[in-house]
Amino acid sequence: MSFVPSFSDIESAVDIIKDVVIETPLVESAELNARMGGRILLKAENLQRTGSFKFRGAYYRLALMTAAERAAGVVACSSGNHAQGVAAAAAILGIPAVIVMPADAPRIKIDNTRAYGAEVVTFDRLTENREEIAGRIAAERGSLFVPPYDDPHVIVGQGTAGLELMRQAAAQNASPDSILVCCSGGGLAAGTALAAQGIDPDVSIYVAEPQGFDDTGRSLRAGERLRNPALGGSICDALMAPMPGAVTFPINRHVIAGGVAVSDDEVRTAMRYAFGTLKLVLEPGGAAAFAAVLAGRVETRDRTIGVVLSGGNVDPGLYAAILAGM
Amino acid sequence: MSFVPSFSDIESAVDIIKDVVIETPLVESAELNARMGGRILLKAENLQRTGSFKFRGAYYRLALMTAAERAAGVVACSSGNHAQGVAAAAAILGIPAVIVMPADAPRIKIDNTRAYGAEVVTFDRLTENREEIAGRIAAERGSLFVPPYDDPHVIVGQGTAGLELMRQAAAQNASPDSILVCCSGGGLAAGTALAAQGIDPDVSIYVAEPQGFDDTGRSLRAGERLRNPALGGSICDALMAPMPGAVTFPINRHVIAGGVAVSDDEVRTAMRYAFGTLKLVLEPGGAAAFAAVLAGRVETRDRTIGVVLSGGNVDPGLYAAILAGM
Fold first, then answer.
1. Which residue of A has its CA nearest to B279?
2. A52, A53, A123, B323: which is deepest, by most CB within 10 A?
3. What is the per-residue pLDDT across B256-277, written as a single tens digit (0 to 9) for each?
C-alpha cells in the first residue's frame, strides 16, 4: 500500500467528491427510537448514486487518476455494488471501464453496470478467480485495477460516509456512542472508523457480517486474518468477501471495537422494517448493520447509535419474496 | 372558515412543529435528472412520521388545542394517512382520538392507526357517510372534529412541507420553476402553493390526480367545484375525495396553475422507478405527482421541478404485485 489513510485524507476527499457524490440524509425515526430505547441515526447510503456507498470510493479513486491513466481505462471485479460504483464514476469522468462480475450476481446489479456503459465480463464464482481475470485484463490493456477495498484511496473515499454521518449527527445535536457498518472486505469499516474517531476518539465502531461470513469479527478476536469456510450461501450477496483485506485488516484491528454476526432471517426482518416503517428500500447486505441493531445484538438503551444503511440494489423478485413474510 | 391561511401563518407553524415533525430530505437523483433533462427535486414526505405529509397538518392542528379541548379528544375520518397522522399526533399530545375509516382501507393503515392508540370505527364507503358518523361521535363526546383538508389550520400545517422544499432547494442552489403535488381534497396543494409563492411569486403549482378522480383539475378549468363520477376504483386509495374542499377550492382556484391526471399504470411505473432507482418506498397516491413528471405530463427540459413524494404506506402484497411488473 502506498500510504496509510488518515483522517485528514478523508477531510480533503470531501472537497474532491462534493459536486458528484450525494450527501445522503441522516434519517431518524421516532418509532425506531422508541422501540430501541435510544437514538438510532441511519445514514441512508441506499440513496447514494448507484444505490450504495461504493460510489464514494470508486469516484474518489478515479478522480485522482492522471489524464494518461484515464486514457488506459480501469478494471474492477465486484459482485455488484463496487461494479456499479466504478462504472458510474468512469462514465462521469470519461474513462473506459471493464467490470468482472460473478455470473450469479443479482440481475439488477449486472444490468445497471452495463447501463452505465461499462463492459461486463462474467465468471463462475465457485471455479474461477476474479482477481486473476481482472489482473489479466488490466495487464493486457495497461488499465488501472480498482480494488473494492484493499486500496488506501478507496478506504478514504468510503470514509467520507462516516465523516458526513458525524457532522450530520452533530448538526442534529447527537453524538454517537457507537457506529455499526456492514463488512465484507472492510473498506467501509476502516474508512468510517478513521473518519469518526478523527472527530471523536471515543466513538466505537462495530462491524456487522452475515453468519458464516463473519471473517472480520473472527479475525479481530484471533488477531490474524481468517478465511470464511464457504464462498456462497448468504442472502447478503454484497458481503461475501473470502477474508479480511490485506490493506484493511491492519487498520481495522486497531480501530474496530468488534464484530457481530446476523442471520439471514434477521436481515429479512430489517428489510421489512425498512419497508414498512422507514419507507426505505434496502438490499440484504445494506440491511446487515441495521439488522444487528434491530435484533438487539448491540446495546441501544439510552445510547446514540449510528448505522450505515449501505445499499439498496435488490432484485424485485427477491424483495417481493421477502415482503411476503410480513 | 375562521381565517384565510397565509404565508406568515406557515412560517410561524414551522416553529411550532419543528421538534416533532421531521424536516424530510429533498432528494435529487443524477439518473432522474439525466432522464428528464432538468433538475427534479423530490421532497420525501414518505419519510415523514407516520409515513406521509398528513402528520404535519394533524400535529399542527392538535398542537393549537387548549387543555380543555384536549381533554375532550379528537375525531377524524380518513382513508388512512390522515388517520395515522391524527392518531400519532394525539398520542404525542396525550389526546384521546377516534378515527372513522373505510372498512376497505389498506390493512397497514388501519393497523398503524390502532397501533398509535386510537380507537378505530370502520364504515362501508359505498353506503355510509363518514362525515355523518364522525360528526355524531364528535357531538356525543364534545370532541373536536379534525378535517383532513377543509380547515385553515390543517392547510397551514401541510404548507410547512412546501416551505421546507423551497428553503432546501435554495440551499441546493435551485429555484423551482414549478412544483407538483398530489391532490385529493386540496389541503397539501393549497398549503404548498401559499408557502412556495410566499417565497417566489413566480413558482407555478400543479396538482396531480388519478384519472377519473381529477375533480380539482376539472373544477379549476370550470371555475366551480365539480364532483367525481365514481367513489372508488383508483389504485390511489389516498386520492379519492369526492370533490374539492369548500375551504381549499376558493384558495386553490387562485394559486394552482392547473391539474394533470395520471393513470394507474403511470403510478405503478413511478412506484417501480422509486424502488429501483431512488430506493424509496412510495404508496400509489404518494407517487401520483412523481408519475406526472416521469410520464412526461409536465415540461421538465431545462426546468427545475419540485415534486412532493407524499406518502409510503402501502400494503406489502400490493407492493409485491406492482414490483412483479418490472
1. A281
2. A53
3. 999 999 999 999 999 999 999 9
